[in-house]
Amino acid sequence: MIPDPATAPPRPDLPFLRHRAKPRPPAPTPAAQFVAGRGPHPPHGHHPAPPAPAPSLDLSRPAAPAPAPAPASSSLDLSRPATPAVPVTTGSLDLSDPPAAAPPATGRATAPARAAAPALRVHRDRRVAAGQQQLLTVTTPTVTLTRVQSGVGHLEIEAVCSPEVGDLRLGAVYQLATGENSTVQYAGGERFAPAKARRPVLLAGRDAYEHLSIDLRQVRRLERLAVYAFSESRTPLTWGGTLVATTFGGARIELPLESLYEGTVAVLMSIYVLDGELVIRAEMETITGDVREAARAYGYDRITWRDDRHPVD
After folding, report:
1. d(CA 146, CA 197)
2. Cα-flanking dihedrals φ and ψ of residue 228, to 5°?
3. Is 164 part of a structural domain of the chain?
4. What order of strands is seen across the sheet that includes strand 202-206?
5. Dihedrals φ, ψ of 28, to 5°?
6. What is the pLDDT of residues 241-257, one digit of tens each?
7. Between 251 and which of 128, 164, 219, 267 could a Cys-Cys bridge form, CB atoms 3.0 to 4.6 Å apart?
8. 241 part of a folded domain
9. CATH number at residue 202
10. CA-to-CA distance for 284 and 249, rounded, in angstroms?
């Protein structure tokens, strides 16, 4: 039964019921009093401590547990090096072969492979040694004398022919380094070249056969010449025999005459002076006309003629 409140004994465990006053608010801070106009400006550097951030509740991904510490080992194992850690990616798991690496890009497209160029053919002058013989033919029409062969002694040119060929005579049309052009021949012409020179470069004569001689000590005065043969009686020749050029050392250059067509005049051989060396070439061409036409056919067109065989002196 509840006793009467007026006669009930006091309760010491409920002291707050004795006072009906409202609890006092907390004392205002200096900054709040300054804002309210009831206090001075708070000193600089005094900032209230920021409130501790409330713990956030993130349910997107559970926190990864901390890795367990590795157990301490009392022994040091050097038998195999440690395998480096491989970073783990969060991408898709693809166990297929890796794609092939793309070739590096270049500035321009690769040119197609070119076919190998054929080896260049190097021309080598045909030479003849002292005491040897060189035959001039269609396949080997030229021979080059060395500087010694071109500058020592005389170069003798001889038409070795039998009487059955006819009255074959030998001559040459020449051009000197000074530009002078003329002919030299033993039969009915000028035997020396240049004419009336104290030391002729060319000399024409006849012993057993018709022949020409070139003074090689003056070879640099000579630029070129062409050796021709003609019939003194203007009767067509039955070509045969051999034209032979012999050096001071005994080297022989031979040119057979059987392949010439029938006629009264033919250009047999040409000789050029190139850098102090004589280049001898087989021509073997029968000419329609006479000595004048033969000279003009080979570029000796600066000669004035008295008739078809003799230049103007």
Report:
1. 27
2. -130, 160
3. yes
4. 133-135, 252-256, 242-246, 154-160, 210-215, 202-206, 192-193
5. -70, 150
6. 999 999 999 999 999 99
7. 128
8. yes
9. 2.60.60.30
10. 26
| Token digits of residue 125 | 């002058």
Instruction: Find, among 217, 99, 213, the residue nearest to 152 by Cα.
Output: 217
Residues 3/11, Cβ–Cβ less than 8 Å: no
Contacts of 213 by beta carbon, 8 Å cutoff, 6+ apart:
154, 155, 156, 157, 202, 203, 204, 205
Number of domains in the chain: 1
Determine, yes or no, domain membership for 105. Answer: no
Q: What is the pLDDT of residues 113-154, one digit of tens each?
A: 666 666 666 567 899 999 999 999 989 999 999 999 999 999
**φ and ψ at 295, to 5 degrees?**
-65, -45
Of residues 268, 292, 166, 277, the one with CA closest to residue 222: 277
Whole-number CA gyration radius for the chain = 62
Domain extent at residue 192: 133-297
DSSP string, 177-220: TTS-EEEEESSSS--EESTT-SS-SEEEEESSSEEEEEEGGGGG
Q: Are 299 and 274 in contact (CB under 8 A)?
A: no
The pTM (predicted TM-score) of the whole model is 0.62
